């Protein structure tokens, strides 16, 4: 159990870094988006991300750890790829490419939150489990919104 507790703490610090770094990155992507609905979705999720970071800090404290960030080379790579792809894209495809980048990051978050949630459950951190489930549900909902927006609006116009 000691190893799993360490993994949970490390993972929470890493995801805190992700949420802290992601909020301004989402705002930047929103500013680069031409499609009004995409811009709004990214701005709303940036605000939601700020709240998620606060919840992760609370979870860290509740499991007896300092509310400090770790590192996430994975997020830095995903953000760099997203920015580069959006900057290189033709204007007609930029929004569709922004969605791909944002969804790639969402999938990373979904994988991380899924593991953290189950580790919290295994370790008996019921409140942390519930809060991580809530965040996981929010990440899944954001991904679904982006997916629907891409399918119904952005991809058809990116041809």
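Sequence proposed for the structure above (159 residues):
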């Amino acid at each position: 159990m000691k190893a799993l507790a360490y993994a949970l703490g490390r993972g929470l610090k890493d995801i805190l870094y992700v949420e802290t770094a992601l909020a301004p990155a989402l705002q930047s992507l929103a500013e680069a988006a031409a499609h009004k609905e995409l811009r709004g979705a990214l701005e709303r999720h940036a605000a939601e991300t700020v709240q998620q970071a606060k919840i992760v800090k609370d979870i860290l404290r509740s499991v007896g750890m300092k509310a400090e960030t770790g590192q996430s080379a994975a997020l830095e790579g995903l953000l760099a790829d997203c920015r580069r792809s959006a900057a290189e894209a033709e204007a007609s495809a930029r929004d569709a490419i922004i969605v791909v980048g944002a969804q790639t990051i969402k999938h990373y978050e979904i994988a991380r939150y899924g593991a953290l949630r189950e580790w919290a459950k295994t370790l008996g951190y019921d409140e942390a489990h519930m809060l991580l489930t809530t965040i996981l549900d929010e990440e899944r909902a954001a991904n679904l919104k982006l997916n629907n927006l891409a399918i119904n609006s952005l991809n058809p116009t990116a041809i």
